[in-house]
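Progress report, Aim 2. The chain analyzed during this reporting quarter is listed below.
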Amino acid sequence: METTSREGARDAAEPAKAEEGPGALRTVAGYLRAPFPWYGLDEAFTGPRWLMQVGADSDGVVQHGATGHGEGPSIRPDTSAADKGRFAVVVTVGTSPVRRTSDGTGQLEATTASSAAWLAGSGLLASTWPALLDHALRDDWLKQQTEAAFELADDLTGAAWSALSLPVDGVPTPFHYRESEFGWVLAGSTAGQVHLGAYGRGMSAYGLGFSVIEDINSYA
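Predicted structure tokens for the chain:
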């Protein structure tokens, strides 16, 4: 992810500070504080839209966040059961220059499409871990899988990724795309102020398009 250290890369992407309180996942206040535009699926998608969560740095500056589309992610049943969750989550990551870590002990490089890829990959894992997995083993499983997602995000030109072109504000834009047993993940960069990531299940990524959200309140 082009950082000086792996831990630094995690700090760059992870939500150091999120909206607090019982309505944290769906409050619009954090989104309104962002210094960059939010993206979601374009007008071709006519299903439900909802807010998720924003991540901010130690100074309270919003760095990234996600918007949901569809039925909402849920823990995936065993592979023999019907998969009822059809959703796509769009991750918006603001461009950011080289900066110090929140504890002042290291330096982070600028955010890239890899930042969006890691947030999307870890988001898919966090919302779709196997329901039949023993709860005592879940943390170990999630740590292992998240590490794998990080490694994949750090190598967007690797064999695990394929090229996919999707419209962003009507302009064909290149993305990196991969599939797993839990769903799909993609990531790329816009010509503007953000990097975009997305993950989903039950909805084909090949038919998606992205656009700036004109009124984030419409997701609340």
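Confidence is low (pLDDT under 50) at residues 1-25, 77-82. The first helix runs from residue 6 to 13. These observations will guide the mutagenesis work planned for the next reporting period.
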